[in-house]
Amino acid sequence: MKSFMALGLIATLASCGAQSDPIRPTADVGVSIGTNGVSTSANVGATNGPVTVSVGF
C-alpha cells in the first residue's frame, strides 16, 4: 500500500512540472549483508533544482 501511495505522489509531483521546469524522478534500491543477515531498502522521490522529496521503505 505504501508503495502505491509513493508512486502516486511521484506521479502527482511529476505532472506539476508540465508548465515549468520538469521534475526529475529518482529511485534507489539497496541490499546489505551483515551479521544480522540480508536486508533490503528502497527509496523513490522527485527533485526539482535544490528541492528534493523522497520516500524510503
From TrEMBL:
Keyword Signal: yes
Signal peptide extent: 1-20
Keywords: Signal
Superkingdom as given in the UniProt entry: Bacteria
Name of this chain's protein: Lipoprotein
Organism (species): Cognatiyoonia sediminum
UniProt lineage: Bacteria, Pseudomonadati, Pseudomonadota, Alphaproteobacteria, Rhodobacterales
